[in-house]
Design brief:
The chain is an all-alpha fold. It is 72% helix and 0% strand. The protein has four helices and no strands. Helix 3 packs antiparallel against helix 4. The two termini are 16 Å apart. 34% of the residues are buried. The mean pLDDT is 95.
């Protein structure tokens, strides 16, 4: 299995791509602040899943990297709240992105609680 086959990776990658598209409409003054931060955090989730998967033989390292993913996923939600508060996204977009982020979080928590399912012993 490749890390790209993991459902958590696929969903987090899709979320990062959606956030990238949505954030294109943010004001120019947000380029190096909110836009950059929400993009970075959302991309970090799937990239850290890839890194974690390479460490599945080492349960503590695997779990540690997955908790990094979970933190980045929560950070993404926080930045989305700022985007909503500033009216850069509407409530419908916010709800859809947040729901997908919560799905990613549930998958990450499953992986953290069941590392042996992913090759970790």
């Amino acid at each position: 299995m490749k890390f790209q086959d993991l459902l958590a990776y696929q969903k987090s990658f899709d979320l990062a791509m959606k956030i990238f598209e949505v954030s294109k409409s943010f004001p120019k003054e947000e380029t190096y602040s909110l836009m950059d931060q929400v993009r970075r955090a959302s991309r970090s989730v799937c990239v850290n899943i890839a890194e974690a998967y390479r460490k599945y033989s080492y349960p503590k390292h695997f779990i540690s990297k997955l908790t990094d993913c979970d933190s980045e996923n929560s950070e993404t939600q926080g930045w989305l709240e700022f985007a909503l508060a500033r009216k850069y996204i509407d409530k419908t977009v916010f709800d859809a992105l947040t729901q997908q982020s919560e799905e990613v979080g549930k998958l990450l928590h499953y992986m953290i609680r069941n590392p042996d399912t992913f090759g970790s012993k």
